[in-house]
Input
Amino acid sequence: MAKPLVALLTGAGISTDSGIPDYRGPNGLWREDPEAEKLVTYEYYMGDREIRSRSWRMRVKTHALKAEPNGAHRAVAELERSGVPVRVITQNVDGLHQLAGTPARKVLELHGSARSFVCTGCAARGAMQDALARVEAGEADPPCRECGGILKPATVMFGERLDPMVLGEALAISKACQVFIAVGSSLQVQPAAGLAGVAADHGARLVIVNAEPTPYDEQAEEVVREPIGTALPKLLRQLGGAHP
Ligand code: ZN
Output
């Protein structure tokens, strides 16, 4: 018998144990400080060289690239290695699922990746580390080496749309999976949140692992309020063991 497809939707809560703050959440940095929010808002970023300089300086200062995966990321990778078909849909841009060992082709990054930069002119991409090295070497707003265009992190900024291809794939997975586990997401940011409802409507067993209540708790078969670092490994071991 085919093993059931397990989809995981992961939000900021899975990475807080890795020391990455929840920038976008209700109490996140971007919400508290409108000036900080400008640094990640497409219109301001593209229109103002000073905003870009500050945005690059902020990226040099934050240590998101140095963060390490935690036990929850590793538990997802272990489930995948055990032979259970797993797809990860993540709202995070930290790349920690891939670092933990989940193959990149099985991770859909709804909001892009902070580990890469992209040129807004010619779409050339590169490693964020390389752009940050240029900033540290004195380039306040490093231009694209291919076309001279404005570089930005390969993340979806406020005011930008999600990649329709990525979103389409996320929808397809949500419809096809037998188990949908939402982890560390408040399920309040659309369209990501709606995927939980889509999965439940298509007959998947919906499990929610989150400290706070979410709008989808009533549709869930199981709601887990325990800390993600202990709850998720336990839950995934049960899943892996239930279908040897
Ligand atoms: Zn370019």
User: Anything to note?
Assistant: DSSP finds ten helices and nine strands in the chain.
